[in-house]
Specification:
single chain, mainly alpha, Clc chloride channel, two-stranded antiparallel sheet, 16 helices
């Protein structure tokens, strides 16, 4: 009698279970340890500001690590996109520890960066390498890669469903692969459960209880969304400008050192450390009181400079900062509640920069509750359209749907 084997995407269900558990355990555990370590690194920097003086040397160190141990990994998130579009199993294992170490160095010595890029890269590494280990074909490899990205994103931000949709949306904008959806969602939630069991120190946000939708003032979300889209465009263009400016310095070590010196000067001139690191205190404060008019602009300058000269981390948490402080300031002139305004900006600029409006809107459901979703979905779609064809991931394809 023949043994009945249940399959999904031409692969045994039991193999998929192994793939899901392997990715989820690796990503969930890594996210937990990474968050604890990053909190420690941030506290160490804030209690020892003399470390900022070594910012140029930190940049040189990061460049050395990538040139010595993982030159192909330097592409970062764009390497994940390239591997998805043309699976070749070229993501090296070293990418995961390299991005984690480089992120710690960036934050310890005063760079302005996030942590999403780190999560996507170690999650994507696990997905791609485990796909090779289980000998998956190209189509199955794509699913595993998306599952890894979703697991990293979801377990890091405590947003598993948004993480799953982000993974589907960022790779195939407008062409979500329904075949991949179950695997990606299950992996993201399993990774989230692992991080929850390990008590990962996630940032907690105040729930938005209720919103009156039949309110004429809600039409204000249209100009607010346009402002979010323009801020995203400024962020994207600023990164390009810094890259072209420092690209004139052909030696990567000199480039990182020069960028570090300029960043150090900007920190000194600003007289504060609020624009370096993740900026989570400023994000939380934006929900409680209107932010300064210049906060979002300075964060754009600090973050795009940091990431353009060789430092590592990510853009998403800085984009949360930029969006939340922008709309928090605009709440002085817009007749909408401060928490609603900050919530709209929190994801609006993020959506415009990554071209993932659905994932960004869903993120507010998991972070703030479902009440804000209709407004954030509208905001994210408009912001994505206004922000232009270019995104922060230069290798991203299928952007034409929105323009």
């Amino acid at each position: 009698m023949n043994k009945i084997t249940f399959t999904y995407a031409n692969l045994s269900i039991w193999i998929w279970i192994k793939v899901i558990l392997s990715i989820a355990i690796c990503a969930g555990t890594t996210s937990t340890l990474f968050l604890y370590a990053l909190n420690y690194v941030t506290d160490t920097r804030e209690n020892n500001l003399w470390l900022l003086l070594f910012l140029p040397l930190a940049g040189i160190t990061i460049v050395y690590l990538y040139k010595k141990y993982g030159p192909i990994a330097k592409k970062g998130n764009n390497l994940l996109l390239e591997e998805y579009y043309s699976p070749q199993g070229k993501i090296p294992w070293i990418m995961s520890p390299l991005i984690i170490m480089a992120t710690f160095i960036t934050h310890l010595f005063g760079g302005s960066a996030g942590r999403e890029g780190t999560a996507l890269q170690y999650g994507g590494t696990y997905g791609d390498r485990l796909a090779a280990f289980f000998q998956l074909d190209k189509s199955q490899n794509r699913i595993a890669l998306m599952a890894g990205v979703a697991a990293g994103f979801g377990s890091l931000f405590e947003t598993p469903f948004a993480g799953a949709i982000f993974a589907l949306e960022v790779f195939k904008l407008g062409r979500i692969r329904l075949k991949a959806l179950p695997i990606v969602v299950i992996t993201a939630y399993t990774s989230h459960i692992v991080a929850h069991i390990l008590k990962a120190p996630h940032t907690k946000y105040t729930a938005i209880e209720s919103i009156t939708y039949l309110d004429f003032n809600n039409l204000w979300i249209i100009p607010v969304a346009i402002c979010c889209g323009l801020a995203a465009r400024i962020f994207i263009v600023s990164g390009t400008v810094w890259e072209k400016l420092f690209g004139r310095i052909t030696n990567e070590y000199y480039r990182a050192a020069a960028g570090g010196l300029l960043l150090l000067l900007l920190i000194y001139l600003s007289g504060t450390t609020k624009y370096i690191g993740l900026g989570i205190p400023s994000i939380l404060s934006a929900f409680e009181a209107p932010a300064a008019s210049y906060d979002f602009l300075l964060k754009i300058i600090f973050t795009t400079l940091t990431l353009s000269v060789g430092f590592k981390g990510g853009e998403v948490t800085p984009l949360f900062f930029i969006g939340a402080t922008l709309t928090s300031f605009l709440s002085l002139y817009v007749p909408l509640p401060l928490v609603v305004m900050a919530g709209l900006g929190f994801v609006g600029v993020f959506a415009g920069s990554t071209k993932t409006p659905l994932a960004c809107a869903l993120m507010t459901v998991e972070l703030f509750g479902p009440a804000l979703f209709p407004l954030t979905l509208t905001t994210c779609i408009i912001a994505t359209m206004v922000s232009g064809k270019q995104g922060i991931y230069s290798s991203q394809r299928n952007l034409s749907k929105w323009f």
